Every structure is written in structure tokens, then in C-alpha cells.
């Protein structure tokens, strides 16, 4: 269905306009692009470049530069996305620690960096060094006692409120589009919707700065989702520098798909996971060429981040783990149980969060975004500080939960009772009975889990940058670690039970609680986002735990099955529907037996379709039709009586063509006849100069018959990315079906209010 007439028309329109207006061939804000038309325009452009390249050496060099421009854009995106991610990571580390204290020799050092340089740090108290001072030590020279605790508590809350207030104010004043995770909107943009400014320079700048502030404030959110938005802003900026991408919305979306891959690559240090995430989760149109370019962009981004080394461990991965024991078949049962928990948590979270966001949109609550952020931050800081597992940053918490208990661990989670006669290698410590520290940690983790589950529901969707990956993983990791410790103690105290007898002998290291935390994290993230393949790859790239793919796969698939039993939508699709974006999800199935004639407009009793005739309307008639309607285009017919279809004219190009003709062509007045045929119609002798607009006419619009099943029509809209489709019978125009008509019909068939899902 290559739209050749339309594209030749676009080329001729350029000739007709001499120096074209900047808006020719572009789309208005909050409109959908025509994928077929963009594809055809690119084919035309490529054909011209190829034919010109044979004329001279200079044209040949230009054609080579054009061919390489895609790779150059990917290189630039990777470099900028990697640099921004590295800077964000370093800034977050410093500002998170700033809430608790300051490094005296160099205030820009985080706690860890400050104590690296100290010679007075002991192994037991590796977090304590004289160079790092808590606020109570600095202000009242006390490190212990009630007054020191209260002062530190108060300053922790003040810093958190300060960061959050600054973030929400910057978003509100300079870049309202910088709020949220950005992934629902990016999915919508990649499906062909235009949201001007969403990927602009201001959004990039403000989102980068406010992301540091909100993560440092200790709110229950992550920076991973917003980093995809940041990378797509980089992609949009660099594609605007090359006319190949800036003048073609379809080509621009190929760049944005690759940029999304680079975003996940730097968010998790997972380049392959990033490519799969872009393919599985966000992209609408993903040709093989885009796969290679995404791979290259993700590679460059990961390499740049590795060069900056923000984690200081010379590793790209965020939560590197090293487990010394394999997993056993009997452990698949608790892994699957964690998958069930992940699916239930995902369902609970999506339903509660969407209900809260809908309430925010429809009540007075939405009018006070700053107050909402301040209140949620205050509650988070007040409740989080007393519990060591919620006080620290979520990434540090997940890292500790994933860790295996070696001989060098000082964490409460590793407070086991040691056998004094044990003479084993350091790496192979057998299962031991839990000490008082482990029981304390279990209580604190249980309280932290409940708090995280509740507060994340209210945090995601506020008017600040907020990602969902890390909070979801934290919920799963806490649940998983508790299950892991439970299984470990069960195996230790009841090793003679039939399920443990075959693989867990007394004195052996059988169960790794950290692995359960990893599986739980994957299950909860899968339950919320409904990712499967990309999730498993991200998890093993994130942790380096390659041999644990099967437990991760089992948990991811189980969580998806359980969550899908309660509703097919992931959190991003739910937010797309909440905002009413015109998004046709490829995963949705349409199984109803309706026909095109049931959906097309005009319906019975409605005014007839607004059409143009091929040679009997004046300029004034066309302008009146444009003024009185708000349609994006008009079918062109032979005459109002015959209604034989000739083609389709876009509203925007009609306006531009008439405006330019009035300015530059003599004799074109309001009563000039507009004709879309090759030859002008026969006119009376003294008639004004006619206006030929055949060049902007699409001579091959997509048409279906009135008896085409809607199942086929929906499939056509999805796979070809159409804006509209004309309905005919024996060449006679009957009506039109737009993308919004399809969405309305699908909502109606699903017993939803069709108007509530339309973008306003």
C-alpha cells in the first residue's frame, strides 16, 4: 500500500510553493502521524539521493554522509545518555548522604568516598571515619543520645522536604512534561502520536536536575524509568540536527526506539536488556535496522557509563552478586510462590494507583500538586528514618538484600550463630541458625515492606519525575529475602524432611537467601510492568547471576500469568488509558463480529460526510468548509451526486496551498474554481483564474468495503499505523473510519464509556 500519489504530491507541492512554508508535511500537536505517507516520503528522498549520487563526486560523498547519519546519531545519543546517567548517579550518591552528614575535608564527597581516603577506618566500623561527620556531631558535638538523634531526624526531614519542594517547583514552572516516568507517553509517541515539547530541551534539562533531587529526597521512586525519557529527549535533540530525521516523523521514531534502549542500558547497566525492553515494551514499529542501531546506541551508552565508573567498583552492573551454591529443583516451589506474590502485588498496585490518579484528575486534589508532593515527602521521611532499611537509598537496600552472607559481612541480615569448631573456606559457609540480629532484621523488613507497598501507590504519578522499577524491585527483594531466610532456617532445623534430605545435608551451604531476593524482585517488577523476556535479561545483566536464569524465568512467567488473570493491562498501558492517549495496543485482541459499516461515520441520522468535489467548488467554498469543521482531511469525490472516490486531501496542506496561492499566484480570488483533475474544467470566458490542487491530493487513500470485518480493520490500523480509512461500496464513498472511531468502538465492546478514554 505504498502511497505513491500522495508522496509525489508532496514533492510537487514543494515545487509549487517554490520556497515552502516550514509547516508543509508536518503535523499539528496532539495529532497522529500517517506512517504510510512518512515511509513513502523517505523512499522518495532516498531515490533522489541515489540518482543524484551518480552525477558528481560531491553528491556521492553527500549520499555516503546521509547513509552514515543514522550511526552518527546513535553514537551521539549513547555518549550523552551515558554521561547524563553517570552524572545523575554521582549526584544522587552525594545528595542522599548529605541528608545525614557532610565530609569535612571535601564537602562534595559522598560518605563512602570520604571514608575511602581515611587511614583511621577500622574493618568493623568501616562506615565511620573522623572525616565524615553527622549533622549532630557538627552542630552540637554529640554523636549519641536523644538530642543527637532528634537533631539528625529533624535535619533528615528538612533536607528531604527542601529537595522535593525544589523539584516540584522546577517541574511546575519550567517543564510540566518532566513529571512522571515518561514511559507511557513515549509508548504513545512511538505509536505515532505527536506531543510537542514532551521531548524538548527544557524537558531534558529539568528532568535531569529534578531526577537527582527527587531520588535524593528519599521518596519511594526510582530513576530508571525517567532515564528512558531522558535518553529519548537526547534522541529527539540529535535527530533534529539531521534533516533525514527532523523532516520525517516516521524516521524520527526509529531513532527514539533506539534511544529508549540506550536509556535502559544506562539505567541498569544492561545493554542487551535495553534492546529487548525497547522491542518488547515500548516500540510500535521496530524494523531490523533499528535493532542493530539500538544495539550500537546501548553499547556506546554502557561504555560511556563504565568510563565514568559512578559506582566506584569498576563494574557496569548495579547489584553485582556472587553466590557460591547452585539452586535445587525443590526450590522451584518457593520461587513460583514468589512469582504468585509478584503477580498479586502488581495487580494491587495497578488498581490502587490508577484509582488514586483518577481521583487526583477528577477532584480538587489535582489543583495542589506542590502541597501533595510536600505531604507525601514529609510522611515518607518521618516514617522512613527510624527504620534502617527505609532510611537508606532504595538501591543500597536492594544491594544488601541481594548479597550473600560471607565471612566479611557486617549486616544485621548476616547475624548468624557461628559454630566455634567450624574450619571451612571463607566462601563456603554452611547454613547456620539465625541470631538475634536476623530476627530483628526480619521485623524491620516486614515493616519496611508494608510501608513501601502503601507509599509507592501514592508516590507514582505525582508531578515530579518518578520511576517504578526500583520501588517494585525493593518490594520483591524484601519479600524474597524473608522467604529465603525462612527456607534456610527450615532446611537447617529440619534437614531430615523428605524435601531437604536429598540435597541438604547437615553442615552444607544449601539455601542462598539473596537469590530469593533476586527472584522476588524480578517477580514484582514483572507483575507491575508485565515484561518477561527483557525482564529476565535485565535481571541477570543487573546482577551478573547468569546461572540463575531458570528461577528468574519461572518467577517472571508466574507473575505475568497471575497478574493477567486479574487484567491484561500493565501499569504503563493503564496510565495510557487513564490519560486517554490514542494508543492501539498490539497485544490487545479484538474478537467481536462487527463490520466496518457499524463503526464508520456518518451514522444514520447524522449530517452527511464533508467532502470536496474534483472541479466544482470555489476557493471560498473550500475555506468555509475548513472553517466550519475540524476534520484532519477531506475525501475528494467526482461530484456530490455520484460520490465516486478520487482521493483524499489533508486539511493542513489545503490551508497552506490556498494561502500560498493567494500570495504568489496572480488571479486567484475567492470565487476561483478549485480543481483536483489533471486538466482544468471548462469555464465561462470571464471567470477568474482556477486553482489546481492535484499536487496535494493523495490518489491512493486506504479503503475498505462496508462489509469488511472490524477485526481486519483494527489489524490494518495497528500494522500500518493509519490515521483514517475510507469506506466504499463499488467505488462509491460511504463513510470514513478514524483511529479515534476504532478506539471508541473497542471501548464500547469492552463495556467502557467510549468518551472517557479520549484524549482531552
UniProtKB/TrEMBL annotation:
Pfam families: CBS, Voltage_CLC
Xref: SUPFAM superfamilies: CBS-domain pair, Clc chloride channel
Any one GO CC term of the record: Golgi apparatus
GO molecular function: antiporter activity; ATP binding; voltage-gated chloride channel activity
Keyword 4Fe-4S: no
InterPro entries: CBS_dom (IPR000644), CBS_dom_sf (IPR046342), Cl-channel_core (IPR014743), Cl_channel-4 (IPR002246), ClC (IPR001807)
Record's keyword terms, sorted: Antiport, ATP-binding, CBS domain, Chloride, Endosome, Ion transport, Membrane, Nucleotide-binding, Repeat, Transmembrane, Transmembrane helix, Transport
PROSITE patterns membership: CBS
UniProt keyword Transmembrane helix present: yes
Localization (cell): Endosome membrane; Membrane
Domain CBS: 600-664, 697-755
SMART domains: CBS
Listed transmembrane segments: 68-92, 153-175, 195-215, 227-243, 255-279, 332-356, 368-385, 441-461, 468-487, 515-540
Record membrane topology: Multi-pass membrane protein
Family per record: Belongs to the chloride channel (TC 2.A.49) family.
Protein known as: Chloride channel protein
Gene, per the UniProt record: Clcn4
Amino acid at each position: 500500500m505504498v502511497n505513491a500519489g500522495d508522496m509525489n504530491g508532496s514533492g510537487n507541492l514543494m515545487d509549487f510553493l517554490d520556497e515552502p512554508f516550514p509547516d508543509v508535511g508536518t503535523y499539528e500537536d496532539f495529532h497522529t502521524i500517517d506512517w504510510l505517507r512518512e515511509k513513502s516520503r523517505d523512499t522518495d528522498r532516498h531515490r533522489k539521493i541515489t540518482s543524484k549520487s551518480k552525477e558528481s563526486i560531491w553528491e556521492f560523498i553527500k549520499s555516503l554522509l546521509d547513509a552514515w547519519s543514522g550511526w552518527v546519531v546513535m553514537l551521539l545519543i549513547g555518549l550523552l545518555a551515558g554521561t547524563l546517567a553517570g552524572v545523575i548517579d554521582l549526584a544522587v550518591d552525594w545528595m542522599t548522604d548529605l541528608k545525614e552528614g557532610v565530609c569535612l575535608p571535601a564537602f562534595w564527597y559522598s560518605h563512602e568516598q570520604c571514608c575511602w581516603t581515611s587511614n583511621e577506618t577500622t574493618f568493623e566500623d568501616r562506615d565511620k571515619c573522623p572525616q565524615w561527620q553527622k549533622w549532630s556531631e557538627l552542630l552540637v558535638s554529640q554523636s549519641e543520645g536523644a538530642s543527637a538523634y532528634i537533631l539528625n531526624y529533624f535535619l533528615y526531614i528538612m533536607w528531604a522536604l527542601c529537595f522535593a519542594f525544589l523539584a516540584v517547583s522546577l517541574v511546575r514552572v519550567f517543564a510540566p512534561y518532566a513529571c512522571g516516568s515518561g514511559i507511557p507517553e513515549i509508548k504513545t509517541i512511538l505509536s505515532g502520536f505527536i506531543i510537542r515539547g514532551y521531548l524538548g530541551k527544557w524537558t531534558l534539562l529539568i528532568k535531569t536536575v529534578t531526577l537527582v533531587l527527587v531520588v535524593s529526597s528519599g521518596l519511594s521512586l526510582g530513576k530508571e524509568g525517567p532515564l528512558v525519557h531522558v535518553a529519548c529527549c537526547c534522541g529527539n535533540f540529535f535527530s533534529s540536527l539531521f534533516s533525514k530525521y527532523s523532516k520525517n516523523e516516521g524516521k524520527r521514531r526509529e531513532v527514539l526506539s533506539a534511544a529508549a534502549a540506550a536509556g535502559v542500558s544506562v539505567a541498569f547497566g544492561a545493554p542487551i536488556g535495553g534492546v529487548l525492553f525497547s522491542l518488547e515494551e515500548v516500540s510500535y514499529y521496530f524494523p531490523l535496522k533499528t535493532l542493530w542501531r539500538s544495539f550500537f546506541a546501548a553499547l556506546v551508552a554502557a561504555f560511556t557509563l563504565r568510563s565514568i565508573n559512578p559506582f566506584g567498583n569498576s563494574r557496569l552492573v548495579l547489584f553485582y552478586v556472587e553466590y557460591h551454591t547452585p539452586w535445587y529443583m525443590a526450590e522451584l516451589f518457593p520461587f513460583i510462590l514468589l512469582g504468585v506474590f509478584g503477580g498479586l502485588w502488581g495487580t494491587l498496585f495497578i488498581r490502587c494507583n490508577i484509582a488514586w490518579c483518577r481521583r487526583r484528575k477528577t477532584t480538587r486534589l489535582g489543583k495542589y500538586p506542590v502541597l501533595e508532593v510536600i505531604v507525601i515527602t514529609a510522611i515518607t521521611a518521618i516514617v522512613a528514618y527510624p527504620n534502617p532499611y527505609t532510611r537508606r537509598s532504595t538501591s543500597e537496600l536492594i544491594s544488601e538484600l541481594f548479597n550473600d552472607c560471607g565471612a566479611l559481612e557486617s549486616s544485621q541480615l548476616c547475624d548468624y550463630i557461628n559454630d566455634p569448631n567450624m574450619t571451612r573456606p571463607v566462601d563456603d559457609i554452611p547454613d547456620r541458625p539465625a541470631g538475634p540480629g536476623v530476627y530483628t532484621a526480619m521485623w524491620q523488613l516486614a515493616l519496611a515492606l508494608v510501608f513501601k507497598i502503601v507509599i509507592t501507590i501514592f508516590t507514582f504519578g505525582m508531578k515530579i519525575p518518578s520511576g517504578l522499577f526500583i520501588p517494585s524491585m525493593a518490594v520483591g527483594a524484601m519479600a524474597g529475602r524473608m522467604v529465603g531466610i525462612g527456607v534456610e532456617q527450615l532446611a537447617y532445623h529440619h534437614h531430615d524432611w523428605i524435601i531437604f534430605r536429598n540435597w541438604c545435608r547437615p553442615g552444607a551451604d544449601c539455601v542462598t537467601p539473596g537469590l530469593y531476593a533476586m527472584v522476588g524482585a524480578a517477580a514484582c517488577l514483572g507483575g507491575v510492568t508485565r515484561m518477561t523476556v527483557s525482564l529476565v535479561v535485565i535481571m541477570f545483566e543487573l546482577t551478573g547471576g547468569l546461572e540463575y536464569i531458570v528461577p528468574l524465568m519461572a518467577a517472571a512467567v508466574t507473575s505475568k500469568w497471575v497478574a493477567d488473570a486479574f487484567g491484561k493491562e500493565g501499569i504503563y498501558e493503564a496510565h495510557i488509558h487513564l490519560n486517554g492517549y490514542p494508543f492501539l495496543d498490539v497485544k490487545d485482541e479484538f474478537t467481536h463480529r462487527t463490520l466496518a459499516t457499524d463503526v464508520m461515520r456518518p451514522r444514520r441520522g447524522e449530517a452527511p460526510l464533508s467532502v470536496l468535489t474534483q472541479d466544482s467548488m470555489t476557493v471560498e467554498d473550500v475555506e468555509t468548509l475548513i472553517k466550519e469543521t475540524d476534520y484532519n482531511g477531506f475525501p475528494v469525490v467526482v461530484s456530490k451526486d455520484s460520490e465516486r472516490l478520487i482521493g483524499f486531501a489533508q486539511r493542513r496542506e489545503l490551508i497552506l496551498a490556498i494561502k500560498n496561492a493567494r500570495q504568489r499566484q496572480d488571479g486567484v480570488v475567492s470565487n476561483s474554481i478549485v480543481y483536483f483533475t489533471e486538466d482544468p474544467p471548462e469555464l465561462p470566458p470571464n471567470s477568474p483564474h482556477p486553482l489546481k490542487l492535484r499536487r496535494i491530493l493523495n490518489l491512493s487513500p486506504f479503503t475498505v468495503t462496508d462489509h469488511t470485518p472490524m477485526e481486519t480493520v483494527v489489524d490494518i490500523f495497528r500494522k500500518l499505523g493509519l490515521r483514517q480509512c475510507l469506506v466504499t461500496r463499488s467505488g462509491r464513498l460511504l463513510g470514513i473510519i478514524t483511529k479515534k472511531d476504532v478506539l471508541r468502538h473497542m471501548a464500547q465492546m469492552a463495556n467502557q464509556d467510549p468518551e472517557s478514554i479520549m484524549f482531552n
